[in-house]
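Researcher: We're teaching a course module on how sequence relates to structure. For the next exercise, students receive a sequence and then see the predicted structure as tokens, so they can try to spot secondary structure elements on their own. Here is the exercise chain.
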Amino acid sequence: QVQLVESGGGLVQAGGSLRLSCAASGSIHVTNTMGWYRQVSGKQRELVASISNDGSTNYADSVKGRFTISRDNPKNTVYLQMNSLTPEDTADYYCNLFTYPFNYWGQGTQVTVSS
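Model: And here is the predicted structure for the students to work with:
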């Protein structure tokens, strides 16, 4: 009933920036958490950053100070501003929306950081 569509991924040089966007549609409860996860082939998906409907945020230690998550509640859209990118950030990035008891995922967008 909820659909998430990511955009903004691509190829960027180390030290560069990208901004990911995720637009949610459908029956979305106002109380929810949206976040970004990333996954490298052969490894488990891991949390990058999340933000609740009231604006509280959480970040993985590896991205603190470099990435910023934000959201536009009227547009049901979450963003991930990624700065000072390194090859270690290369992964497929997935948008997530959690609203109890449901967990929704986007299709993923690829981020590749070259050295």
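Model: If you want an answer key for the exercise: The first strand starts at residue 2 and ends at 7. Residues 7 and 21 are 5 Å apart (CA to CA).
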